Q: What sequence folds into this?
């Protein structure tokens, strides 16, 4: 049977959300914090579980590769992930299983698009925290195999436009590989929206009286992007994105959302915005595109 993408989620990865949740895998413990986003993830999780996916695919800006688009090619990875900026919030023991067959198929399809691909075969490779956090927040049980795709540096090395073009091709390659696999797949775009952030931290990191969006302009840009998502205007969203990257230092510049929307053939149905909130001033939203909910 032909495989398919059963949902796509804009799944941002601030380590604060894992810290606020206190799962057993994370060493630092909090009192609470960032509930609007954590509860948004809880709602989204329920929808994703119901879809019974065979595999979760994540594209993360914190596995940045200069040459080519890389995928994980080893079945098991285990280790301690420490956030380089927030080591006091995120020291997470991960133990994950990769769908290597699907990874290899994606690598093959990437080359058919005229792009470079590479399979990561080092069993001691340290999985980036963007991948781990988005996966944890969508599936804290870790009972579904994963595929992790690097973010090629082209949007930064060349231009927004060249980068987006590559991510569109990467999305189509991913879609074909999923179809050939016969599996039910959920895609995770591991990105915040606006990304200007504070350069200081409250004495108590989870002190929510100190948390707010960095500035009003950034907030207006986030709302514009979310309005387009809610209206089912992914095509317009893609058209506005290069300007959004520059105006709001948006993290989606790294390509995850473009990759996901392309793999889903640029959906024209409304996305479900589960919640929006700031983390150290950055704008974050948990947004689900679910074709079955829109039939
Ligand atoms: Fe990030």
A:
């Amino acid at each position: 049977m032909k495989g398919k993408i059963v949902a796509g989620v804009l799944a941002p990865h601030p380590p604060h959300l894992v810290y606020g949740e206190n799962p057993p895998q994370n060493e630092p413990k909090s009192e609470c914090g960032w509930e609007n986003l954590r509860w948004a993830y809880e709602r989204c999780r329920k929808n994703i579980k119901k879809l019974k996916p065979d595999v979760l695919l994540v594209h993360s800006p914190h596995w940045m590769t200069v040459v080519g688009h890389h995928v994980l090619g080893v079945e098991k990875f285990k280790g301690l992930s420490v956030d380089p900026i927030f080591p006091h919030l995120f020291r997470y023991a991960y133990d994950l299983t990769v769908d290597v067959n699907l990874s290899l198929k994606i690598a093959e399809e990437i080359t058919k698009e005229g792009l470079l691909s590479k399979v990561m075969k080092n069993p001691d490779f340290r999985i980036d925290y963007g991948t781990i956090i988005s996966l944890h927040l969508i599936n804290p049980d870790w009972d579904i195999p994963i595929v992790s795709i690097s973010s090629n540096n082209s949007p930064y090395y060349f231009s927004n436009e060249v980068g987006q073009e590559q991510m569109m091709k990467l999305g189509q390659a991913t879609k074909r590989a999923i179809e050939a696999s016969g599996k039910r797949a959920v895609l995770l775009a591991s990105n915040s929206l606006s990304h200007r952030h504070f350069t200081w931290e409250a004495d108590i990191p989870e002190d929510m009286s100190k948390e707010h969006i960095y500035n009003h302009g950034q907030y207006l840009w986030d709302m514009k992007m979310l309005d387009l998502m809610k209206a089912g205007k992914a095509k317009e969203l893609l058209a506005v994105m290069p300007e959004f990257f520059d105006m709001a230092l948006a993290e989606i510049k790294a390509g995850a959302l473009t990759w996901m929307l392309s793999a889903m053939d640029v959906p024209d149905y409304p996305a479900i915005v589960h919640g929006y909130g700031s983390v150290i001033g950055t704008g974050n939203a948990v947004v689900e595109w679910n074709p079955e909910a829109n039939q």
About this structure: The two ends are 20 Å apart (CA to CA).
